[in-house]
Design a protein that fits this description.
The complex is a heterodimer of chains A (250) and B (506). With 250 residues, chain A is α/β, with parallel strands linked by helices. Chain A is 45% helix and 17% strand. In chain A, helix 1 packs across helix 12 and helix 4 runs parallel beside helix 6. The longest helix of chain A is centred in the last third of the chain and has 18 residues. The mean pLDDT of chain A is 84. The mean pLDDT of chain B is 91. The chains are: A alpha/beta (250), B alpha+beta (506). Chains A and B meet through strand 3 of A and loops of B. Chain B: This is CHAD domain-containing protein.
Chain lengths: 250, 506
Amino acid sequence: MKIIACYSNKGGVGKTATSVNLAYALAQGGRRVLLCDLDPQGASGFYFRVKPSKKLTDTRFFEDVERFTKAIRGSDFDNLDILPANMTFRDFDIFLARMRNSRSRLKKALKAVKGDYDVILLDCPPNISTLSENVFRASDAIVVPVIPTTLSQRTFEQLKEFFREHDLPAKKLHGFFSMAQGVKSLHGDTMDEMRREHGKRLMKATIPFASEVERMGVHRAPVLASAPSSGASASYGALHDELVARVFGK
Amino acid sequence: MIPDDTKLYFMSAAALEGLSDAPAGGLVPVITWQEGVSPFQVRDTFDRELRTTGRMLIELEGGAEVLSPGSGSAAQPDVGGTRFVADFPEGPVKAALGGLSPLRCLLPVGAGHLRRGTLSLLDDEQKTRARAVLLHLDATEGGALTIVQLQGLRGYDKALARLREMIGAAGGKAFGDDTAYTQLFPDLADYTPKPVVPLDRETKAFDAACDIIAAYLPVARANEAGVIADDDTEFLHDYRIALRKVRSVLSLFKDVYGAEQTIELKGRFSDLMAATGRLRDLDVYLLEKDAFYALVPDSLHVGLDRMFALFAEQRAAEQQALARHLRSAAYRKEIAALCKLFDKRRKLARGGKADKPAYDFACRLIWKRYRKICTIAEAIDAETPDHEVHELRIHCKKLRYLMEFFAPLFPDGPFKRLIKPLKKLQDNLGLFNDYSVQQESLQAFLGGLDGAEPGNLQAAQSVGALIVVLHGRQLAERARVVDSFAAFNSAETRQTFRDLFHGGKE
């Protein structure tokens, strides 16, 4: 099982769109996926039309296996379940540790309901906090959308700095350019510069700025499901393939 | 009550459409059908192994899908047209076909067109809360069937329970019995290789004999087409078993038919069987091919290749000859005449015991046969010649036939407790016999080999080695006979035989 976190310390970079489409693409690829909506704005659940559960606000939530498994909701798509938002995260690292430990009650409970997952995808809130640090430690990969602007360039560097300071392996970072606009020469220049500077920490796949992605809020479904033949879908497909190769190997 | 974990249901198309308007507890039922239809074919073995185990194999455009009551549906691409279960590539379909005889070919049961769809329960945000995959089968032969496969979504158990209720209320039935087949293919003929012939204690022996024969003749007839088409080797096997049952009724039910009548009938049925013997022998050799290869070292396999190539050639010729025979006017006339004879029964000459009540008749025959077996078996030791062991085997076989014919007259439990150890004894004796017969026919094969022809010397070496191994095996089985019989004839067996067939007396 792999834990993949989708994270950005800057808002409005297409992070939730990435989580939603990656989760969908991974599930379509035959992997059993649990998408955890950790962002209090609750958008990834919204895109799958899953209503947040009231029971999830309890602080001791993750100590309670039964309630945890009950909070998971099946999406409309095969192999893809959602853990809706609206929870407090105090014990989230405990949750992740238990997901890792095959002998934990949590893991056993999931296995019992055939809910053992190949991938846990975390849609993380946009701030560096104790939660983030725990999530970074627990994750196999941190996917970071970066808008190719000077400001985003700085936040990506800040994130790398945070990793260095906290002794976290920078290898876990997998950045990619998001909402890229080919017509803007600034975007092009920034992308070239960042690729030189960050090398392998940036993936080749780039998600363009596209109206289909904007319209996800209207369709309330992943672009890959609502507009499978669109350019944006092709980009998310490429991002998925590249990430799978990096995380799962060939 | 349908158990709560049922995944597969079936219902009529009209009942399904009615679900659109059914109350759904605040949810909205939505049925959507995919565009277009695709051809399908349902296949099963001739003796309906899938149907009798509640499963359905649906073949479509290269792929196949198996519906099983326990596990729902299993699908696999690129397995279309696979004839034997062993030839399926490993995968969910092969797994779902588990338990099928490796010898039986999967034959078309019926065909038609299939449409796929979904039945969903949506909430006020258009989120699916529960779903069922729909499979609508429209048979060319006239029947139709909608299969509903429930798919729960995690965290929405209530909606799933609601959907299940709705399907039940609309007349959906749990998939897994015969009804789905009869609804889809209403004109499907009945077939069972082991017909149960109802008897009661007062049934006259003559009627019992005629009933059994009249039940087995159609079994033989039902297998003719498969023998002619050479679909699989079990057709001939079952054809022969049916005729052998008839013959054993004729020889075991003594004095039920007139003496001359019995001789005449035995002759006619022997003639029918004689035409099939050689092909069956060759089938057995070819089915056992791998086992024969395993008996001799690799260096001798070349010779076996030669032998089995010859067998395969002979088999092809025998099969064609038998097919010609079964298609011939003479055969058709003869078998039709025999069927008529046992249906009408007026022209059958009755023997002295024709009017005996079946129960008394059965007890006497079974008891006598059992005593005979005991007498022979008790005399067997290491010095006993082989032909006496063969004798024992034949008597055991006859006892088994008698017990099976008359099974409806006796209590189930004690009867089964006798059959089980008897089967074990028969297995031992059967192997002893098989090894001995195989040696003889391999000897005959050797005798027929032209030594001058290239390759035949190698074949002769291999066959010689095979005979040595088979002889060793025969001796080993021979050595087990005394113990096998002792295991069969336990104090409990003896008492049960006395109780059931001899009024509890010695």
